[in-house]
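Handoff note, outgoing to incoming analyst
You'll be picking up this chain. Sequence as last confirmed:
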Amino acid sequence: MWGPEGLDEVEAELLGPPEELKGKDVLEIGAGAAQCSRWLAGQGARPVALDISHRQLQHALRIGGPVPLVCADAGALPFADDSFDLACSAYGALPFVADPVLVLKEVHRVLRPGGRFVFSVTHPIRWAFPDEPGPEGLSVSASYFDRTPYVEQDDEGRAVYVEHHRTIGDRVRDVVAGGFRLVDLVEPEWPVWNTSEWGGWSPLRGNLIPGTAIFVCVRD
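Most recent structure output, in case you need it:
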């Protein structure tokens, strides 16, 4: 699943036709509990799920499944050059690092020539709106061009959650600086069947402004 709208890979085929995933080496970056990797394994691929969070990977272990789990920084991937056919990241890693180009260069390094990297992030336009599902979430309240990170702190003043804002132009430039060719930018529309509200996600907002941006990149 690429985002809260509900666009799944079976429908989107952004990594390629499902029948062509069999036997492919795939790296999932910012895998969390490795949900995407388990789906990939079900298609016959050979996924590796990577996340910097040990607790997320513990959750993946509890769920189970034939997926290797790696605890590592996406900006320093512990793999040899040309190790994977494909890489993917659904709301993982890239929104949470200050230097996304470093991550993109690392992904480019471990992909084989012709390899594809597909990643999804919160659509940058959402940063200009309050994170509310109702009408209050439809009025611009901040500058789209303000790249100040969103930071949550604990009682000691230590950052416990950080998310970085990049404009659409920033993301495109990052992809190119990472060595990739951008072949598609997908902005999923909110489907009629999805009546869920979760956090700032809702049919009301989803029908009016995009919520997810998916970048499809190729290593030539």
